[in-house]
Amino acid sequence: MTTTEKFIVRPGRVEDCDEVHRLIKELAIYEKMGERVEITPEVLKQHGFGDHKYFHVLVAEISESEDLATGTIGGYLLYFYGYDPWQGKYLYVEDFYVTPECRKIGMGSALWKTVIKTAAKEQCEWMEWCVLDWNHLAINFYKRYGAVNVTKEAGQIFRLTSKEVENVLAKIQ
């Protein structure tokens, strides 16, 4: 947990899911993909805080501000663990977002440093994430922390949606 005069970074709680959902939608709109958000706060509660946790989330909560209400969540970072049979456990950052009004106060850096500490504590072999190629602000942020673009050496990413899985199953059964 990281605390400053203006905000606190802490693990997300089930009661944060409505706010995290709001921020997920804001990030999707920023990334020009707002129409693709299908998840609901209820599903976030089940998947992040149910019997089997599929993800972890860090939140940055306003503790003191002239402009924002105390308790408002101004940023989040959602991650999960993966496993590579050649090297072991890694941490994958799926989403990382700070609202425009909460930028420039160190909130993003605090969230990022917290997840880096988590990866070290959990003895992860690496951290990984995807950045849209036009998001130079994010790319420069990560480079300041020593991140390296491995796109050319890594494999290409492929995907089957649940609908495509159903289509394949219909053909192979």
Automatic annotation (TrEMBL):
Q: Which PROSITE patterns does UniProt cross-reference here? A: GNAT
Q: Which UniProt keywords apply?
A: Acyltransferase, Transferase
Recorded source organism is Acanthosepion pharaonis
User: InterPro entries in the record, alphabetically?
Assistant: Acyl_CoA_acyltransferase (IPR016181), Diverse_Substrate_AcTransf (IPR051016), GNAT_dom (IPR000182)
Enzyme Commission number(s) from the entry: 2.3.1.57
Q: Which PANTHER family match?
A: DIAMINE N-ACETYLTRANSFERASE, GH14572P-RELATED
Which residue numbers delimit the N-acetyltransferase domain? 7-166
Q: What family does this chain come from, according to its entry? A: Belongs to the acetyltransferase family.
Q: What is this protein called?
A: SpeG
